[in-house]
Design a protein that fits this description.
The chain has 465 residues and is of the alpha+beta class. The chain has three domains: 169 residues, 3-Layer(bba) Sandwich (FAD/NAD(P)-binding domain); 103 residues, Orthogonal Bundle (protoporphyrinogen ix oxidase, domain 3), CATH 1.10.3110; 111 residues, Protoporphyrinogen oxidase, mitochondrial, domain 2 (Polyamine Oxidase, Chain A, domain 2), CATH 3.90.660. The protein is 34% helix and 24% strand. The protein starts with 5 loop residues before the first strand and ends with a helix. 49% of the residues are buried. Pathway: Porphyrin-containing compound metabolism; protoheme biosynthesis. It is an enzyme of class 1 (oxidoreductase). Belongs to the protoporphyrinogen/coproporphyrinogen oxidase family. Coproporphyrinogen III oxidase subfamily.
């Protein structure tokens, strides 16, 4: 038996909904979501009559949290594997598949790169010549590029690792933290082991790294919200928090119908760091500063539907799409051939070829300062060069994710420790979300569940005697 009877979750993205799910049957939960629908970065729309994901399009299958949640809320039968295909990089003017067995672009077998053209001869020679002598064990966090350039050479970082990290974080290796964005590699560095030899000895995971949801990943938040039994108030933006004399929290919210005041025993902030910072400013100025200092990258997802019978499409290359290193100076950072990658999308619209392109990494905000039609034109120009003449789309949509992805820059882990300490001093308040311990859906589910468990534990600890 706990003393927590009511919890307000602010933010109806997958993190907040995972918290609501964890609290089901154990607390009365209200979720406040400022948008008209729950889901946050998980949003499925319709293009040319077909469901398409406008944000996240797959969940990590190498860790269990997201897949288990999908199964628990009744979506197990809709989980689906992508068509098997290697990661392909569009670089040095060609689409070049990456040999299997890499860790975020770091090859475990550099010799397998020979003949792929991914690197110049000099770049490949440098990669294969990782200094034998293990470096001094790393004692503090560094930028990924700072560590990797010394190990495998700058060209391998630019053309192999950078496109992968651009895909996951929309981030740059010169700024992202080795410890937070590549914890496994950081472990090797901290033990002072040689990098490539250590990766070579690792067991390779079997099966697909990611899974999709038939009908779109946007089904996941809707199903979790429903199954959690939580009261979900969409179109409701939390504006301020106020602790009450009895140790509860009051939330001042704004809705289309006017202000709304809600009180609960505990509050979970499941919003981006900048939004949590604003709400915590009066109560924990130091936490506010730390949260406000977490940078974000903006991106745009361009979804396009082409008629399949159009000349040129028959010549589309194999594979599920490609990633692009920033060093090549293109507009698109990635493209996904949705109709090849996901069987359910091909089946839903056999007459169409669905494709999505992403634009925008940290430091590329200028690319997004253009109207939608210019952005589409620039993306089509790149696609034309990468895959051949693909003509004009029948339908297209640009979805902008302003400050969509938090950047785990050098020192992120230490920052998290300071945030955790500051938040722990606020009884009945927790934070969770993509800003903390992983931007992927599975990691977000894990932080939401953990925040909910801390709320329940805090309540238990507060029960006298
Ligand atoms: C374009 C893109 C593609 C991605 N692709 C993948 C992928 O394929 N696989 C993967 O695993 N991950 C992917 N990610 C990352 C992943 O989708 C996100 O990190 C994750 O969904 C974030 O969930 P969240 O709940 O922490 O935050 P959010 O999804 O941002 O949810 C927070 C919610 O809080 C609401 N909110 C904010 N302020 C307030 C307030 N004051 N009051 C009330 N509500 C508020 C927002 O409207 C939002 O709905 C992608 C991200 C982006 C941007």
């Amino acid at each position: 038996m706990t003393s927590t009877r009511s919890v307000i979750v602010i933010g109806g993205g997958v993190s907040g909904l995972a918290a609501a799910w964890e609290l089901r049957d154990r607390a009365e939960v209200t979720v406040l979501e400022s948008d008209a629908k729950v889901g946050g970065k998980l949003r499925t729309g319709t293009l040319a009559g077909v469901a398409v994901d406008e944000g996240a399009e797959s969940v990590m299958a190498l860790r269990p949290e997201a897949v288990e949640l999908a199964e628990a809320v009744g979506l197990g039968r809709t989980l689906t594997d992508p068509a098997p295909a290697p990661v392909t990089v569009w670089t040095r003017d060609a689409l070049r598949p990456m040999p299997a067995g890499h860790v975020l672009g770091i090859p475990s077998d550099p010799a397998a790169l020979a003949g792929t053209g991914l690197l110049s001869d000099a770049g490949l020679a440098r990669l294969c010549a990782e200094p034998d002598r293990p470096p001094t064990p790393l004692t503090e966090d560094v930028a990924i590029a700072a560590y990797l350039s010394e190990r495998i050479g700058r060209e391998a970082v630019d053309r192999l690792v950078e496109p992968l990290l651009g895909g996951v974080y929309a981030g740059r290796t010169d700024e992202l933290s080795l410890r937070s964005a590549m914890p496994g590699v950081a472990g090797i560095a901290e033990r002072g082991e040689p990098l490539l030899a250590s990766l070579r000895g690792r067991p390779r995971p079997r099966g697909s790294f990611v899974r999709g949801i038939e009908g779109g990943t946007g089904r996941l938040p809707l199903a979790v919200a429903r199954a959690s039994g939580a009261r979900v108030l969409t179109g409701t933006t939390a504006r301020a928090l106020e602790p009450t004399a009895s140790g509860a929290w009051r939330v001042h919210a704004a809705t289309a119908d006017g202000p709304l005041l809600l009180t609960a025993d505990a509050v979970i902030l499941a919003v981006p760091a900048f939004a949590a910072a604003a709400l915590l400013r009066p109560h924990a100025p130091a936490v506010h500063r730390e949260l406000a200092a977490i940078p974000y990258a903006s991106t745009a997802v361009l979804t396009m539907a082409f008629p399949r019978d159009r000349a040129g499409l028959g010549a589309l290359p194999d594979g599920n799409g490609f990633l692009v290193p920033p060093v090549d100076g293109r507009t698109v950072k990635a493209a996904t051939f949705l109709s090849t990658k996901w069987g359910w999308q091909a089946a839903a619209a056999p007459h169409l070829f669905l494709l999505r392109a992403s634009v925008g990494r940290a430091g590329e905000e200028h690319l997004l300062d253009r109207p939608d039609r210019h952005l589409l034109r620039a993306a089509l120009h790149d696609l034309h060069h990468a895959v051949g003449p693909i003509g004009e789309p029948l339908a297209a949509r640009v979805t902008r994710w302003d400050r969509g992805l938090p950047q785990y820059t050098v020192g992120h882990a230490a920052r998290l420790a300071r945030i955790a300490e500051g938040v722990a001093a606020l009884a009945g308040l927790e934070v969770c979300g993509a800003a903390y311990e992983g931007v992927g859906i599975a990691a977000c589910v894990a932080t939401g569940s953990a925040a909910a468990r801390r709320v329940l534990e805090g309540a238990r600890a507060a029960v006298p005697g």
